[in-house]
Design brief:
- The complex is a heterodimer of chains A (about 325) and B (about 500).
- Chain A is an all-alpha fold and about 325 residues long.
- Chain A contains twelve helices and two strands; from the N terminus they run ααααβαβααααααα.
- A six-stranded mixed sheet of chain B has the order 6-7-8-3-9-10, sandwiched between helices. In chain B, strands 16-19-20-13-21-22 form a six-stranded mixed sheet, sandwiched between helices. In chain B, strands 2-1-4-5 form a four-stranded antiparallel sheet, covered by helices on one side.
- In chain B, helix 6 (about 180-195) links the parallel strand 7 and strand 8.
- In chain B, helix 4 packs across helix 5 (about 150-165) and helix 14 (about 410-425) runs parallel beside helix 15.
- The longest helix of chain B is centred in the C-terminal third of the chain and has 16 residues, at about 440-455.
- The chains are: A mainly alpha (about 325), B alpha/beta (about 500).
- Chains A and B meet through helix 7 and helix 8 of A and helix 3 of B.
Amino acid sequence: MTHGFVYNILLLGVPFSVALLLASLGEMFNQRAGVFNLGCEGIMCMGAFLGFLPPYFLKTGPLAPYGILIGFAIAMVAGIILGLLFALVTVTFRAEQGIAGIGLQMLGWGVAGTLFRHYVGGVTGVEGLAAWAIPGLSRIPFLGELLFNHNPMVYIAFLMVPASWYILFKTPWGLKVRAAGTAPRAADSMGINVNRVRYQALMLGGAMAGLGGAYLSLCQAKMFADDLVAGRGFIAVALVYFGRWNPVGIMGGALLFSLAQSLQLSIQVGGIKFPYEFAVMLPYVLVILVLSLTRKARMLGPSSLGIPYNREMRY
Amino acid sequence: MRTAAEPIRELRLEGITKRFPGILACNNISMQVSRGEVLALVGENGAGKSTLMNILAGLYQPDSGTITLNGREVRFHTPNDAYAHGIGMVHQNFMLVPNMTVTENVALGLKEHHRFMNLDLKSAKARIMEVSEHHQLPVNPDAHIWQLSVGEQQRVELIKTLCFGAQLLILDEPTSALTPQETDDLIDRLKRMTGELSIIFISHKLNEVKSLSDRVAILRHGAVVFNGQTADHTSADLAALMTGREIHLPRNEGLSLDGGVVLQARDLHVRGDRGHLALDGLDLELHAGEILGLAGVSGNGQRELAEALTGLRRVESGRVEFLDADMTNRSPASMIAAGLGYIPEDRHHEGIVPKFSVKENLVLKDFHTVKFSWWVVLKQSEIAHNAEALKASFDIRCSSTSAAGGSLSGGNIQKVILARELAREPKALVAVYPTRGVDMGAQEFIHSQLLARRRAGGGVLLISEELEEIMNLSDRIAVIYKGRILKVLNSLDATRERLGLLMAGVADE
């Protein structure tokens, strides 16, 4: 293999990881607060579709330059609303989280697909977000092009890693989130409103999943299609476990997965003699392998994950 | 919330009544505590002690009655209200977040210290160190809770409550999960704190009540039946008042029946959870018709021994023989089928399935037999009938045998387990800490049942930390130390001092 082959894989892999990174950082807050949202996929579908609409409809006119910005904003708002819906079902009504999550996934996927066919129809591209080279840094040989010549969402997503870490471990809200997901009864006894914290975390998680979805349609594919999200929402949930509920670990997982994906693409594009079906499988197989082989970290994770909190219940 | 409250000079509860569906938990209860006083709140499981204290801590609302503080009536709607008045409670099940540090756990409750994006761990830590030094409660503020022993976690709970400004401490059965050494240590520390704090502590261990409290209030069926100075009454008086009758812990006085060996371990090597050799060449013989007491400080291999004998833990080398058959590393199912009974250490998680009903828990080991099932269908009426019979003969107190096993009190859960195991008439019974945390009445009952099993010709391996229990019940006493049996004594030759030395690893002769 040539130098160029590996370089291309890396160059593609970094922006590929953004949607996953945003969604799984959001999912991390959900899970740290004690709720796992399998509906992440559905929120990403809605985010991808709704984010795509403004630049699609505002191709001309005074608002045209802001189409993408409006798209991201709408995707986030949609994510918050879906997060609230999920909170209502799982926190207030204490429904089984796994089942509710599957429901949300089908809802988001179905609604986005249906509305798309109704209002847009065929495959249409949008201009998307252009790359913005960071002055100075992007001139560093080799690394400059690789890391500092991307669209702004890439930088934002990677800045979200330390930001999420800070929020989780260094702010009062992060402390409450961790307590609510691990020992809700103890949190309650110290005057923390467990359900309110879970609502907040689900709204944040929804906003980030929506943003991740919009990134796919606005920056990565620059179009919308039914299967655009293609299971990334589920991978995002898996990456939270893989990264052991820690932003840095999650970033590692997102990069690993997206590099495997870009390797898979490079194999196909480069005409290397390797059955492409296996290449497509590669990233998914990798996630399953890594998840089953990593040591289980019982002591570190949110031990009340998936259990609705009810003050009056003893068992 | 944590601003220094007015000092508590006198707290009065008057006419507190609280009903739960079907139960009158507190019936017109009145009592008072003054500054610097230690009030022991005593009573059997289910007497209403915890309910009363949860009302005082702001978790429950009373149906009627008043709380007055320094002569003024107060109302606590939440735990925060109680804290604001200087009342803090240490719950029986610790309220700590295991994957956070000590400092973070305390910071969680110190809300007014924090700014929007800035968690003030420094001042929380300073507060912890201040309290820790002032009350001589050593703690490592940077340790994660899950790394700490139960005794240390208890200390963290105390520190946490004090950091929040508590002047009146409510301790709900603070010693129930502690080893005897940790218990003595806690009692000493609490004694030193009484100079500036008032303490209400719930217990049913009368020796602790005697050594710590100034006054004692005894509850029975939700009402106060006694309230007086501790010093004026003996433990026996208090025990009688608590249960409403005289308590006589039964003793093993019959001659040893000296049957053949039923269960034995030979040169047993077993690893503990952390991979170390927990049992290192252990030999033990249990005879039919005897109670063999296994004395030792917990953590010397007791749990691993019980699990190796019952097939729950893999034996590295050595043999387990049950009724003259080699049963080394056989499954728990085959040990049960062969007639081995087991009362596990962790009654909530290993002894019962908490969400199953009492009647289901009572047939966990037999539901597949022809008695309780027909082909693939459970005989519900047989199961219910069996439960009613056992409920009566083992005095299991529950609203109904359809109630969830986990909703019962500790003593009654233990009776459910005991009933299930003894109804199967085991050839040998491994009983691990069978009376830990249960009240005197239940303790008396459990002891008499173990003795009855012995009389019927069963062998009982009694693993316990309570020397009194071991000396009262055993025919022979084996002392375990660092995964080996240090010595086996005839119980007539055993004294507290001798056992104490052996448990500390000092072999005599």
